[in-house]
Amino acid sequence: MYQPPKPPSLWSEFWMLSRIVYGILFWPLLALFAVLLAVFGVFILYTIHPAFALLAIAAVIAAFAAFAWWESHRIRPPGA
User: Fold this and answer.
1) CA pair distance 53, 72, nearest whole angstrom
2) Is 76 helix (H, G, I), strand (E, B) or coil?
3) If we measure between CA atoms, which residue out of 37, 69, 41, 35 comes closest to residue 54?
4) Tell me, what's the pLDDT at 80?
5) How many Å apart are CA 27 and CA 35, to the nearest integer?
6) CA 45 – CA 56 distance, rounded (Å)
7) d(CA 68, CA 30)
8) Which segments within the chain are labelled E, that is strand?
9) Residue 21: helix, strand or coil by DSSP?
10) Are 38 and 60 in contact (CB under 8 A)?
11) What tens digit of pLDDT does each residue of 6-64 get?
């Protein structure tokens, strides 16, 4: 005789939805915290000496350039 499947418990649905939401929000939140940390670091280095702030800004620009280079040389799937 056919037995309909039991619906998932409330806690398993809660954990599944939480994992989905955190999985979607992880990278944007990580990028936001990285930008805030970079701005804070530039501010701290500027209070020490303005030349240090320029070095930190140059490091941020180099990181963006390295990411852009990596992204442009990544192997794309067919048809993309």
Assistant:
1) 29
2) coil
3) 41
4) 62
5) 12
6) 8
7) 18
8) none
9) helix
10) yes
11) 888 888 889 999 999 999 999 999 999 999 998 998 999 999 999 999 998 999 899 88
